[in-house]
Amino acid sequence: MKPTEYRRRRDLIWRRVRQQMRSILLFDGVPVTPEQREDAAQKILFPVRRARDESAQLATAFYNDEAVRAGRQPSRPRRAPFYPPGAIESVLERATSPKIRIDGLDVVPATPTQTARVEGLEVAPTRGVVIEGLDDLGVELEHARVEIDESNRRDPAVVEKVNQRVDRAIIRHIEQAARDTVKAAVEAEEERSGDPIGWARVLTGAESCGFCAMLASRGPIYKTEETAQRRGKNQEEDKYHDGCDCLIVPVFDIDDDWVGKDAWENLEQLWIESDGRKDFEKRFRQIRDDGDVDQYIGAIDPTSSGGDPPDNGADTAVTFADDPDDAEGIEQEFAGWAQERTADEIEAVTRWQGTDRFYQRVQQPTADDAEARSVRDEMEDLVYSHELAQDRELWRGIRSCEATFGMQSSDLESLIGREFTPNQFTAATSAREVAEREFSQPSLRGGNAMIRVRARKGTPAAYLAPIGDPKLAYQREVLFPPGISMRIVGVDRSSTLPVIVVDLWRSV
């Protein structure tokens, strides 16, 4: 099984659980009492247990492919270890006990003698309270910290923030079942053969941090999985942090072409060139911010042709998507995919594109909006059914920099380096002229601008032109799922409108 296929099937497992957890919190509200947490845990328990079993089966299949390739015996199927309801209750308690930061809100700041209004939430004036918010792209501009209690636990903004916290922890619990399964398979093979098996930490690129990169640079030198998983000395209990995207892969033969070998060698060279751990982590973060991280990502499909990794950090590494050759490439990439779409998916796309702005309901469906929730589920299945075969350069238009970013277009450089993860679908077009003509005009408050989206290889995406409304095919709309990662990396003022350069890639 290729790494990208493993990730695709893993994402399907995760997405089902995410949808169910989100629905439960939207319908019942955030649990703030022990009784409410117990009730919520019971509702979430079955989907999580099923997902853990599916993750264990998937991990077994991945391990068996590697084992057979190395001439080892495959492992027998295993079920995930017992998962108690108390694990979910603990996650819910941790997610709701501290004050939370509410994003994406219209905020009226507090004065020393007043409260702040956050879309209906009252935020008492306290020392050091910071007011922030997100625009429609998810760029973090402001936030407000609020205490969760019975009065606000059903507020959509509170539910969304708590759901994000719960999501990252529960997904770690699900993925741990896969890691435990591989560990058991390796231990069984070691006992059977008497041969030690090495382990290596491999980055997948979604949330690769400097510390995990440092561990991955060590390569297959670990005697046990516990050592490879450990984040630091005497921290065996915290083997994976919430949101960590690392894989621990078995290495049966260091000279074989194992998953992540080239990435390890590149990370090892970076370590050699660095002046200790802090310098290494600083260098890696800079490389990641520059968009040149692909050479250090190990969980990608090996190619038979070999060669140097692409220089994805340079503008010249990606052909402009409105160039005829690249436009044809996008059409070709999605041609087979378009033919496989179901009637329900095509109907969902048509509804999404409706002139009644139904897409706004899909972006934030309420608990009682069955139609919007159904279309959202279909659209999520659609965008996760394909991963970009290569880097693509796409476009978005902005009519009002003040409404989108809270600033004048002359101040856009202050956004460089900001990262964000929108919880809504993100749309773009492969036609620059469409984005500029239809979505950046007329210029409104703060001035207009363009966004150049550099979507990285492996990012889930759907191309709506061949399956949607034929009258809108000229828009060449590309849709990305909620939860992708974005980073503003530059502002280009060489053309009439300022162009904000945004890197976009797959999140965990």
Give structural notes:
By secondary structure, this protein is α+β, with helices and mostly antiparallel strands. It is 41% helix and 13% strand. It has a 5-stranded mixed beta sheet with strand order 8-11-15-14-9. Strand 3 and strand 4 form a beta hairpin. The longest helix is centred in the middle third of the chain and has 38 residues.
Brief synopsis:
The chain is α+β, with helices and mostly antiparallel strands and 508 residues long. Helix content is 41%, strand content 13%.
Q: How would a crystallographer describe the biggest sheet?
A: 5 strands, mixed
Q: What's the total number of strands? A: 15
Strand order of the largest sheet: 8-11-15-14-9
Shape: globular
Give the overall pLDDT as a whole number. Answer: 77
Instruction: Note the run of SSEs as H and E.
Output: HHHEEEEEHEHHEHHHHHHEHEEHEEEEE
SS-based class? alpha+beta
- Spans of at least 5 consecutive residues whose pLDDT stays below 50 are 101-143, 230-238, 302-325
Tell me the layout of helices and strands.
Layout: H1 3-28, H2 34-69, H3 85-96, E1 100-102, E2 107-108, E3 116-118, E4 121-123, E5 144-146, H4 156-193, E6 198-202, H5 210-216, H6 225-229, E7 247-251, H7 261-273, H8 276-289, H9 324-339, H10 343-352, H11 358-363, H12 370-383, E8 392-398, H13 401-405, E9 419-420, E10 426-429, H14 432-438, E11 449-455, E12 462-463, E13 477-480, E14 485-492, E15 499-505
Parallel strand pairs: 11-15
Antiparallel strand pairs: 1-5, 2-3, 3-4, 6-7, 8-11, 9-14, 10-13, 12-13, 14-15
